[in-house]
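Fold this sequence, please.
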Amino acid sequence: MARSCRGLRLQRAARMIAAALRILQLVHGLPPDRAGGTETYAWQLSRALAARGHEVEVLAATKDLARADLSLASVEREGVLVHSLANNLLHEDFRSTWDDPRVAAALAGFVRERDFHLVHVQHLIHLGSALPGLWKARGAQVAMTLHDYWSVCARHGQRLRPDGGLCTEVETSRCGSCLLDFAHNQGRLERRVLPLARVLKRATGLDIAPAARRAKAFLARHPSAPRGAKGGAMIGAEDAARAAALARQVVERNTALRERLGASVARFFAPSRFLLERAVVDGGLPRERIEHLPFGIDLPPVAPRAERAPGAPIVVGFLGARIRAKGPDLLLRAWAALDGEARARGELRLRGSDQSEAAYQAELRSLARATGARLEGALSRAGVAAFLAECDLLVVPSRWWENAPLVVQEARAARVPLLVAGHGGLAEFVEPGVDGWHFAPGSIEDLRAALARVLSGELDTKRLAPRPVPPFAWHVDQLEARYRDLVAGRLAR
């Protein structure tokens, strides 16, 4: 019997090895350096696939002033071979932001030397749009998860105008003026620091990149400080000419991205129906090759939330990067607009990274001081679960059309009621009266009114029962099945 059981185990192991796929994930960054939803998802998926016996590699971009630009470094992490491309955004022109020949040249040997059954694109920002076609030419099947609107919006795919307003219709004639103030390249300070940063790091181990970032943040907060460059803004006619040139380049960019992705990607996955529709209507991607496939979520176990004691403050939380697109200032302004009695019944806590948009961080700190709100740092995965267990309500006031935000899934998995801006994937994933409530996107007054109703008890968070989300293992099952179908040719183009 023992010999028979051992034989069965060996047969199962042999089948698993024979069925293992060689998979490459492409993404613009990984935790802990970048801990956004896309990056966290890509890393979680890579680890899960490796745990199932697949040969998984990740090619991720990283911004590292201490490394030679476009150098490639490889390290094994938790069963996954991770290759990091140092892209310090030394673009020669706007085209290089999405089709940089220097990146293609730096990765040419890597592409030639590595064969994969399947390449899964999570994001191509900082990697370039040529990679999917190069691997398709080598015989790999290519899949892509749509995380945002990058194929039609060069402002990091968020479709937000410089004033923070939402771009509801893609009009490329307006994109040029929208991009005039968008920093898609390294500034003079970073370019000057690069050689010194590399020398010091190699000689002493000292990394001065954080100091360079602090200096850049200081300059952002003090625009009159010396910059070592000719100051002054361009005037009307010059701006208009540059905007017109950028608008023409945006048309070229969006057309090329649509054609390249359409030609190389065999299957697209859209985590929300909203994004699927936008990918077809605005992005021109083939509907027949886009599948709605929801994410799954797993949270570390935490103790059940204790019943709130009578008279205890209602804890209102915000979780995510504290950037303008996420709208934490809207929440702080709405909180400030509450009367003092209402605020006394609650406690406002904002958790998340403050490493971007230095001037905006100063604005948030000022707003928080005025209202007694607490600005707290970023969290680990275990810390996320613990923070959610302390919240009575989580507010997601994003200005942009979120796709399938990780924070909403985490809150629903933890059974925390949500108050969200009622647009995009937020409206899709939060059913009013079940998972939480909506407020008018961008409206401080509507958000204030909703918070007042929660703090008064008119909207009772205890009466809600947020719907569960699928476990992450279910999501990996779905993807693994589609990978195999693609490799076997069972998913027609």
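The first helix runs from residue 2 to 19. Residues 12-17, 223-235 have pLDDT under 50 and may be disordered.
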